[in-house]
Amino acid sequence: MVACRAIGILSRFSAFRILRSRGYICRNFTGSSALLTRTHINYGVKGDVAVVRINSPNSKVNTLSKELHSEFTEVMNEIWASDQIRSAVLISSKPGCFIAGADINMLSACKTLQEVTQLSQEAQRILEKLEKSPKPVVAAINGSCLGGGLELAISCQYRIATKDRKTVLGVPEVLLGALPGAGGTQRLPKMVGVPAALDMMLTGRNIRADRAKKMGLVDQLVEPLGPGLKPPEERTMEYLEEVAITFAKGLADKKISPKRNKGLVEKLTAYAMTIPFVRQQVYKKVEEKVRKQTKGLYPAPLKIIDVVKTGIEQGSDAGYLSESQKFGELVMTKESKALMGLYHGQVLCKKNKFGAPQKDVKHLAILGAGLMGAGIAQVSVDKGLKTILKDATLTGLDRGQQQVFKGLNDKVKKKALTSFERDSIFSNLTGQLDYQGFEKADMVIEAVFEDLSLKHRVLKEVEAVIPDHCIFASNTSALPISEIAAVSKRPEKVIGMHYFSPVDKMQLLEIITTEKTSRDTSASAVAVGLKQGKVIIVVKDGPGFYTTRCLAPMMSEVIRILQEGVDPKKLDSLTTSFGFPVGAATLVDEVGVDVAKHVAEDLGKVFGERFGGGNPELLTQMVSKGFLGRKSGKGFYIYQEGVKRKDLNSDMDSILASLKLPPKSEVSSDEDIQFRLVTRFVNEAVMCLQEGILATPAEGDIGAVFGLGFPPCLGGPFRFVDLYGAQKIVDRLKKYEAAYGKQFTPCQLLADHANSPNKKFYQ
Amino acid sequence: MTTILTYPFKKLPTTSKWALRFAIRPLSCSSQLRAAPAVQTKTKKTLAKPNIRNVVVVDGVRTPFLLSGTSYKDLMPHDLARAALTGLLHRTSVPKEVVDYIIFGTVIQEVKTSNVAREAALGAGFSDKTPAHTVTMACISANQAMTTGVGLIASGQCDVIVAGGVELMSDIPIRHSRKMRKLMLDLNKAKSMGQRLSLISKFRLNFLAPELPAVAEFSTSETMGHSADRLAAAFAVSRLEQDEYALRSHSLAKKAQDEGLLSDVVPFRVPGKDTVTKDNGIRPSSLEQMAKLKPAFIKPYGTVTAANSSFLTDGASAMLIMAEEKALAMGYKPKAYLRDFMYVSQDPKDQLLLGPTYATPKVLEKAGLTMNDIDAFEFHEAFSGQILANFKAMDSDWFAENYMGRKTKVGLPPLEKFNNWGGSLSLGHPFGATGCRLVMAAANRLRKEGGQYGLVAACAAGGQVRERGTN
């Protein structure tokens, strides 16, 4: 029943978006005596209502740190002790954030399981006291109310939230490999019902205020205010506070009841959940689905179900105990460390290390209205960039504009936009076949076909019409930017911006700088990427840059494995069960066989034997038969509109048969096949760092996970080496080297790490 | 809601150039002058502009404004509009054939009479050679009708214009759903029985769900009341302040009605019913009574209630506007000059109802006047909260600096000169007709109180405001 919905989609990493851009800040808390001056929390009394204000110092967000905990306890004790005060309002002083969650650094600093469990138990204790507060406490929520913040809010007697877009509620701990450890697993099911609570905890999804109201997560909504006698944000906070105070008074006077009326469906669900048999079925269903989706790679979701179950079946005490213990266990897992590492990496890749550009890009022009070009246009227009989309043909242009419209319209269907907003956003887009208006462009991104001479031609054409300050960015996945820039009159303005398809879904942007690219050009490109909502890695120019270069040897291995007679379906299941979101064979189909062939040939020429392995002839034959992957309807699989099931393309049998290689039994176990793929990937990634293509391991991990689908539970190639052990990886590589030769020779940096166990990419 | 206008009535100062000009004309308008000598003390400069024709209001009338669903409920909009037109003909005795053009404003259109101006004019016996058109601009539709007329006269296209507005909220077009409409249209085109049957088989019960027009912004889907409540909150206008203001409006309207000051009202003989002679929405209550009402839009803690909002109203208004020389030549004593006007627009979400604040300083500057020069303010009262929010905005340096690009605040209109005969809260607000009522109220007040300049302002859906000044 309802529980079917309640499933976490861990492989879909886009959920990470939740956490992005809420800059995490390591504070230097100087430990001045909290008794004298409270730095995180203060309160004032209005009539008989205490207004408690949360404000973590020197930070854009409030996080639940030890200091905040202790100050909160003090303040609440004072409130409970005071005769004057009859109720309280809990509010943040920061307009965009109620509480963004627990302090991740505090968790990372814990050395033992006991420490973490203890943190959880302390939080549980204070929230339990809050829940049983004799004086009603109203949480007034504006901005993000996530993780521990939401757990705090649902311990209050009443919740009022602003209907602002920034106001989101959720428990995203699962995305960090943990669980809500401050009573959330116990209180949420009681508040919104078991199925909805499991859904929230297993997906970590953000819930907007209006939805939260419907679910019963908040009791009242407050509309954000426009300009008045103060800045809108400030006045909205004040208004929220005023409204919360009225409700606090009403609750204290018993004029308002904190109980809410449940709808019929809710009542029925609640009733059904009182039947043990139904409950067992729900747990079973959810568990099944979680197992299927996580493939056993992520321990957190199952533990969440377990803890919820314990609380319901054995009572709250057992539930809270189980919650704190499992919280401790989870935080100590490799998966959690990997995911938290990704989180930190992501925060890092959301900053512009080049500083602010001299001139903001306001007018953007995109050449080529294909999938890529239109995708780039879509993520630009909705951020308010005036965008020209130019194509060579009317049909191409038309298709591209339709794609942008459809992308926006899908958001309207999901109620993320109104139709009016869609129209107004869409008016930022101009579709055309000529270069009119390019004289105003601040940046041109070309997304034409991957052909060097074509790119040269458009570069020259564009340079003839654009103003001096305009940047020329090339969206290419493998052509070296310096070669493209070779014909430019002003190579300092040329840069690579490698987007990933589909652009509106994939968060990564790989920016490629050449020796000649100016710092300001880089700053501009990063600024545009950030505006488009991208996570950005900046790499040096070179064949295949970073991402394509890592992928190529792995793809070569994919071809060899197929040639050795492994069925594409089996290969897909081996790769997904290792944690890749998309199977290797499917990935080739998705990327496009012709593109893969192109890249394989180009990079094969440059890197030679190291990129060998599979026979590129396989791709060549596929292309000649028109098996280009999803876009042509046939690749390794057959794709039909509206049909979800994928069947193998039986016409591939003859191609595969003609290129068959004898498998080597010593390196062909399932695990070996997985590691042949992954170690080649990892080895190449480490080599990119060694050669300086990558500036930091963190960027390497982010690029691999967000751009190429490297298993998030492993945290990226570098984190994987740290957690799995460089020595073990080198041993694997050597084993495969013995069977296949140079393609598996570990690179120097990796060997160094293996030789000195203290060396880590992340200290 | 909407709107605005300002307008001043010009006294004829004996010493000014104006008077000189008048003097040369052998017109009886001097009698008017003499009729009001006591008022003569307040002579101010004239706002006449060189090379532009002066436009005057000869007179204006309106039907009584009634709560929707009362005596007018069985009428159609053009019936009401016709009543206003015949009332105007009767009041001014203007020969029908002199009228060059007729313009009406309306908001929620009756589909059958989409050019309601023309239907009403024909019914009222105007010549079928007199063109008429209908304009819409939310609550300032009638203002748009008037200023359109001003433009036609000033540019020399016309000499005599009838401008007005009408709204009948007792009956609004409720449509079939889009799916149902599509089905019916397709059925129309179907040729064979087979085609018809196959179309009919597509019918689903939910096609019958009707589509209601909402008093809401299309762009933001926010209803007016909701917007007003948020606006009041943004300017921290309390519930009590709003109730007090509403009470003021009702009390003043009652007083004006009792004293017979609402002279623009003409009786309307409703077919088959009693003759309606006065507005029926004026109901002074007590603050205690008003405090009992629950919020109407933002529940349960909002501040806008039924008592401090304008109500759904049926009504029509009409006004005779002429080029000054034409009016004088025809022997009229004009009631007012229409001088300057200004439309402004803002963000439809958060500043929807702040038009008067934006437009007032602009139109004053355009006319070379200050707040102090104005003798009669007539602002449209959509909601108490909206009027009070505008007051607070006008009184705030911060708002002026940050949102209006002004160095100093606009300044408050003095309350003793403000909507002294009631306003839309108490008299009612037939969307399309309110503009003319505001102008006539300002003109009649100036004459009664001996003022020279009036200012009319209103806010309109879509964030438009227009304002107009006359001297």
From TrEMBL, chain A:
Its main location: mitochondrion. The keyword Ribosomal protein does not apply. It comes from the Eukaryota. The record marks 498 as: Important for hydroxyacyl-coenzyme A dehydrogenase activity. The active site is at residue 510. Gene3D superfamilies: 1.10.1040.50, 2-enoyl-CoA Hydratase, Chain A, domain 1, NAD(P)-binding Rossmann-like Domain. This is Trifunctional enzyme subunit alpha, mitochondrial.
From TrEMBL, chain B:
It is found in: Endoplasmic reticulum; Mitochondrion inner membrane; Mitochondrion outer membrane. Pathway: Lipid metabolism; fatty acid beta-oxidation. Pfam families: Thiolase_C (PF02803), Thiolase_N (PF00108). It catalyses: an acyl-CoA + acetyl-CoA = a 3-oxoacyl-CoA + CoA; tetradecanoyl-CoA + acetyl-CoA = 3-oxohexadecanoyl-CoA + CoA; hexanoyl-CoA + acetyl-CoA = 3-oxooctanoyl-CoA + CoA; decanoyl-CoA + acetyl-CoA = 3-oxododecanoyl-CoA + CoA. Its main location: endoplasmic reticulum. One of its GO terms (molecular function) is acetyl-CoA C-acyltransferase activity. Residues 55-325 form the Thiolase N-terminal domain. Residues 332-464 form the Thiolase C-terminal domain. GO terms for cellular component: endoplasmic reticulum; mitochondrial fatty acid beta-oxidation multienzyme complex; mitochondrial inner membrane; mitochondrial outer membrane. CDD domains: thiolase (cd00751). InterPro entries: Thiolase, Thiolase-like, Thiolase_acyl_enz_int_AS, Thiolase_C, Thiolase_CS, Thiolase_N. One of its GO terms (biological process) is fatty acid beta-oxidation. It comes from the Eukaryota. Its EC number is 2.3.1.155, 2.3.1.16. PROSITE patterns: THIOLASE_1, THIOLASE_2. Transmembrane segments: none annotated. Keywords: Acetylation, Acyltransferase, Endoplasmic reticulum, Fatty acid metabolism, Lipid metabolism, Membrane, Mitochondrion, Mitochondrion inner membrane, Mitochondrion outer membrane, Transferase, Transit peptide. Belongs to the thiolase-like superfamily. Thiolase family. Heterotetramer of 2 alpha/HADHA and 2 beta/HADHB subunits; forms the mitochondrial trifunctional enzyme. Also purified as higher order heterooligomers including a 4 alpha/HADHA and 4 beta/HADHB heterooligomer which physiological significance remains unclear. The mitochondrial trifunctional enzyme interacts with MTLN. Interacts with RSAD2/viperin. NCBIfam families: AcCoA-C-Actrans. Mitochondrial trifunctional enzyme catalyzes the last three of the four reactions of the mitochondrial beta-oxidation pathway. The mitochondrial beta-oxidation pathway is the major energy-producing process in tissues and is performed through four consecutive reactions breaking down fatty acids into acetyl-CoA. Among the enzymes involved in this pathway, the trifunctional enzyme exhibits specificity for long-chain fatty acids. This is Trifunctional enzyme subunit beta, mitochondrial. It comes from Papio anubis. The gene is HADHB.
